[in-house]
Structure formats: C-alpha cells, structure tokens
Amino acid sequence: MNIQQLEYLISVNNCRHFARAAEQCFVTQPTLSTMIKQLEEELGVIIFNRAKHPVEPTEIGVKIIKQAEDSLMAIKKIKGIVDTEKTDVSGSFKLGIIPTIAPYIVPKILSGQHKKYSDLELIIRELPTTKVISQLTSGLIDGGIVAGSINNSSFVEFPVYYEKFFAYVSPYDKLYAEKEIDLNNIDIDNVWLLENEHCLRGQIERLCKLKEKTRQKKSIVRFESGSIDTLLNVVDMNPGLTIVPEMHAMGLSEDKQDNLRNFKNTVAVREVSLIVNKEYVRLSIINAILDIIKSSVPKSMLNTELKQYVVDL
Q: What is 3-158+280-297's CATH number?
C-alpha cells in the first residue's frame, strides 16, 4: 500500500469513473486501474463495484476510502510541520478555479508565476464550485478560487478581489432602450441563466429575486448554458438579458459592449476568494498565490469598500 494508491482511490470515488479519475491524476487509465487492483488484492477485498455505472464503492470500500482521506490529511500535516520551517516559495500547489473566473485570470496567473515565483509549480484545474469543495476536502487540490462565501469550518477563506455585475441586454428587448436597468422591471421569463452547477447562477437569481417571482408563461424552449459566451450569443438574437461579471464585460468586442447596462440605484458585486484547508500550513505559498492573483486583476477590483455590495449565494 502506498500514498499514490490512496490518492487514486479518492479520485475514483470523487469522479465515479476510472477514465476521468486517471485524467485527474495525470496518469493513464490502465496504470490507475492496475494500482487499485493491486491494492484490492493486497487487502483481499473489492473496493469498487465496477458493474455499476457510474462506478460505486462497496460497503467496505466506503470505509476504506474514508480512512484513506484521513490518512492523506495526516500525511499532509507531517509534511506541513517541515514546510512551516521553510520560508521559500517552492514545491507544488494544486489550484482549482471555477469556470466563470478561470478564462480571465489563468493566463495572467501563469505569467505572474513564471516571472515572480519560478520555483513554485502551479497545477491548475478548472472545476465547478462543488468539485472545488470536494477535491479540497479529500486533499486532491491544495486551494480553490471561488466566488461567494463557502461558510465551511474546514476551510480558511482569503478574500482577494471584488468584481461588479452588469446586465447584458438584447437589442430585441424593450429594456434595451434604458440607459440603466431597474431590477424591479426585469421579466423573469426573459432572463437567460447558466446551469445550476455554477455559483454565478445563484448570485444572479438572488440579485434579480428570481426565486421570489413566478413564471407567467410556459416557454417552448428553456435553455441553460455552461458558457457565458453562449448565453451572450443567445441574447444577441433573442429578447431578454443575462448578467455578466466585470472581467468578462471588459473583454467583449466593441459591438457587444453596446449591450451592457449598469443597474439603476444598485451596485452589485461578487467577492472572489482563495480557499484552503485549515490544515494547510505553508503561509509563504498562500501569500505567493494571493500576490499572483491580485497582480492579475485591475487595481479597482482590490477596493475592499466594494464588499458592502456583495450579492450572496
């Protein structure tokens, strides 16, 4: 039994799929499958029921995986005791970033890491919030960049920047003539949303009070996207609107910029934070990651006074 096998167990349990787990662990599927099979033979039990789709742990497998998670966390603590004595920024850091943030800051993060912290190996994964939390809990990643407060006592949250929201309005919608959008005038039937797994959707629902309103008509087509760009293209050709974060708005072409509107008498913001497991002890690396992220966003977004306008999940 070795650490690598335990990591593979946890990854398969999270993904419920051997191929996706292998991809997550940066190994081939035969390698991962062989290592888990060897562990099962060593222990004399079957850990995963491979006949199930998606794959499921057996009854004893659940207990073994839980112990594997605890063991990996204990091993990290041992390494942390040594790491606390190190003030240099070296080694590796596995970072999960949610999809509504990753496209705008990952290129700058990588550039900043190469320039300022060349001895730090950054391994970045684009993950929805739920998977950032699960992989951080199981030790598969060291930190995550998320929007909104996680409110989990197992994590420490480091607020990094504050990003405003804008309405993106269709030229075919009656609200397009407005210079500013009154949230009270938004028609729930004409709001285009991301899929449920995105935390940005929850913030939009809270901002527009969508859950407090009732749909007035049944639409022939209901479309939910995993991509902000896809939503904007839909809005370009259909009545309605969607909500976009500031950094996405900044990257829009000039013709799409014409569709952006501020909110009337309202400033709406999302707080973006770095979260790490409370057991993670290498403060020098945490500070380096925070420095890289802050260097990757406009200085206006570092204004902590914007926190008062944060839209909760």
A: 1.10.10.10
